[in-house]
Amino acid sequence: MKQKVISNFTETFGIEISLNPNFVVEKAGRYYLVNSTLKSMVKPEYYYAGTYLGKAKGGKFFPSFNLLSIMAKKDVSRVIVDWKTAWLFICGRDILLRGVLRFFGSGKKHTNVLVLNEFGECLGFGRIVGNMSDRSRLDDFVVRNVSDVGDFLRRER
Amino acid sequence: MSGKEFFQDRYRQLGWKLREVKLCQSIRINNTNAKAKNIVERLSQLGVQLEKIPFLNDGYWVVDSKVSPGATAEYLLGLYSIQEAAAQIPVSLFRDLKGKKVLDIAAAPGGKTVQLADAMDNTGVIVALDVNKRRLTALANHLERCHTANTVVYLMDARRATALGIKFDRVLVDAPCSGNLAGDRNWFKNRTLKDIQRNASLQREILTIANECLSNNGELVYSTCSLEPEENELNMDWSIKTLNLELQDIDCTGTAGLTQVFGNKLDLTITKCRRLWPDKTQGFFVAKLKKRHKQ
Question: Which of A102, B150, B192, B272 is 20 to 30 Å from B184 at the Cα level?
Answer without folding.
Answer: B272
